[in-house]
Amino acid sequence: MTDVGRHPRIELMTLSEVEKVSGYIGNFRAQVRQKARYVFAKDCTSCDKCAEVCPVVLPDEYQQGFSSRKAVYKPYPQAVPSSYLIDMEHCLGNNPVACTKCVDACEKDCIDLNMEDKLISLDVGTIIVATGMEIYDPTPLDEYGYTSLENVVTSMEFERLICGSGPTGGHLVRPSDRRSPKRIGFIQCVGSRSENRGNPYCSNVCCMNTVKDTLLIKEHYPDAEIFVFYTDLRAFGKGFEDMLKRSKLAGVHYIRGFPGEVKQDSATGNLRVRVENTSSARIEDYDLDMLVLAVGLIPNPDLKKLASLLNLSQTSDGFVMESHPKLKPVDAPTPGIFFAGCIESPKDVKDSVTQAGAAAARASILLSAGSITSQAIKAVPDLTKCNSCGICARVCPYGAISIDLKAKNGVQVVAAACAGCGTCASECRFAAIIMEHFTDAQIKAQIRAALEEKPEEKVVAFLCNWCSYAGGDLAGVSRLRYPATTRFIRVMCSGRVSEDFVLTAFEQGAPVVLVSGCHINDCHYIDANRWTVRRMDKLWDKLEKFGIRPERLQLEWISSAEGGRFAEVMRVLEDLRSRVTPAEIEHTRRVLSENRAARETAMVPIEEQLAR
Amino acid sequence: MEDQFRCMRCGFEYKMESEKEAARDRVCPKCQSNSVRKLSAK
Questions:
Q1: Domain identity same for A108 and A152
Q2: Beta carbons of A596 and A507 less than 8 angstroms apart
Q3: Substitution target from B7, B25, B40 for chain A, most A beta carbons within 10 A
């Protein structure tokens, strides 16, 4: 951190928050609010005289509340810049001024209680997001007594208790009586790997953190007895298995089973932990002086706001989603944005540093090249058709479409920001957006060709390029058998499948139509497939209104790894197809044909589109 | 708030919290199909 602070080409903006981001790769503009620290950082010598006279005493967040700080304070000893700041929420010195003791005590006059936030606008080519994580709060897990029992602490609190720069100077004491604990227990997976309580994912770092803690304790207090309660110990990675072996050789007891109850002896503050040992198949009681909860990691609570600013996609566990898990692991789906560290998933320091290096390299490749080669599949607006309704701008996952709703002068598409999902074109009711290489005319021509002969024997399946089509490929190379009646139409994203395509397929005589794409939160185009879901809901309603069985339209999410599921879905579709009667198909064709004029009132005729 | 859903493959109807539904795939609890239609908006 100090090196970063000193680097001549890095401007470190602490106490700052990004409020707005606009633009696209190579041309981002970020508005940053640099909050007032009320102390001139360049002049402050960290002499501590201001803090000595400050009358406000608060829990020190860095020391997990085990020690106190003042309203004027330095967040932690190694903070960069090495300067004090004022916590104005708790300071008595402002609005109205009731105390100016720190101002009087500062010999260098570097405190200004009237300092204000600054709004800074930055033009940047790329953005790297590394906002870290938070730890799981174990309060809801009552059985461990975190809020009621003083000697039950989290692994983060334990870290401060055993750290040389911690509140006890590295002397391990328990909170209730400041006595050195002799029997210490660790409970693993607190808030992790649980579907109902906590989070379903593994937090990655807790096992090795506990192993490290046990070795530290054994090094300083060889007589201490340590018990680790676990279900699985995950010691993958270089040197980790050795570390675990060393811990076991040092006499640490590893007990497979989760405690169901923790009780405290009110006289001594000692704890009794009851656990079902699944190795010995017995209920066992352990008397401990202190209990450490190895809590999991959770996404930063502010991540949702940041994700909306930067058009980032979040997975179901709340972390951000990478552009591709194997080929672009540090790229956001929005070009020009990268991430590093626990914003993407829980990881240790080594993995975070590796990822940070990769993100920096990816960003510097773009910056040093100075220009980018973009793929050719883009949305192109046809301003002669556009009525400036703004729907396309609203649905674009990349914010690549802008519109002046007052001027009503049509939409503008930033080609560098457009990823080519086609959601805008599908939602446009006026055919005012042409998806190059996936035009309406091209796709309709494919539908017609697929249903040219014996349409009643065909199933039309619209597959997204990245997941479902790749899933079909996998089914093929895996030699999985499925009915040959399905006709696949590849689109870049399921978001490209417009209402019109589905109705055209039915009108051409398709008994069953499938729309298939990436799983929700796995969409290659951030969240374009959420618009597919909304469109499908509307389509099912519409089919019912027309007297067409809505069950004939199916939606399935199939990933590129789900070849087996792909084949299974194709078998189900064939079964559905076999139950659609010729009378039903004829009725559908007639109804949709009669209705086509109304549907196409605002649409451009196919011949004209082909000419365009 | 709960919404009502109907599976368009097997016809099974069920209720689910809107937030949970929005966070992940709609999956029919009975047949595991994703062809699940939201009914409560009607």
A1: no
A2: yes
A3: B25
